[in-house]
Automatic annotation (TrEMBL):
Gene3D superfamilies in the cross-refs: Immunoglobulins
Immunoglobulin C1-set domain boundaries: 17-83
InterPro entries: Ig-like_dom_sf, Ig-like_fold, Ig_C1-set
Name the UniProt record assigns to this protein: Immunoglobulin C1-set domain-containing protein
Length: 102
C-alpha cells in the first residue's frame, strides 16, 4: 500500500516553436488533473497517467501557445493545487536553484 506522493511539476518549452508542456511526475494515487492556459490549443494530453517503474505515476499535457504569453500550469492532486508559471523568456539561473559556487 503506497503512501500519497505529491507530483513534481515542471514546465518545458520548445526552443523555436511556441509549444509548451507541463509535466507532473512521481505522484500517487493516480487521480490528477493538469490545467494550462485556457486559451491555448491542446496538442497532446495524457488523460490516463502512466505508471512508472517506481510504482508512481506521471502525466503530461502539451499545448500550443498563442504568443509569448505567460505560461501557467496548475496540477490538482489530492485536493491540493500546485501552480507553476513561466514567462516566455528564459528565467535567470538563480531562481530556486541552490548556488553551486563557493
Amino acid at each position: 500500500d503506497q503512501t500519497t506522493s505529491e507530483p513534481s511539476v515542471s514546465i518545458m518549452k520548445s526552443e523555436n516553436e511556441s509549444i509548451a508542456a507541463c509535466l507532473a511526475k512521481d505522484f500517487y494515487p493516480k487521480e490528477l488533473k493538469i490545467f494550462m492556459n485556457s486559451d491555448s490549443e491542446i496538442i497532446f494530453e495524457a488523460t490516463d497517467p502512466i505508471l512508472t517503474s517506481s510504482g508512481k505515476y506521471s502525466a503530461v499535457k502539451v499545448v500550443k501557445l498563442s504568443s509569448n504569453e505567460l505560461l501557467s500550469c496548475s496540477v490538482q492532486h489530492n485536493s491540493k493545487l500546485i501552480k507553476k508559471t513561466q514567462t516566455a523568456e528564459k528565467p535567470p539561473c538563480n531562481i530556486s536553484t541552490p548556488s553551486l559556487e563557493g
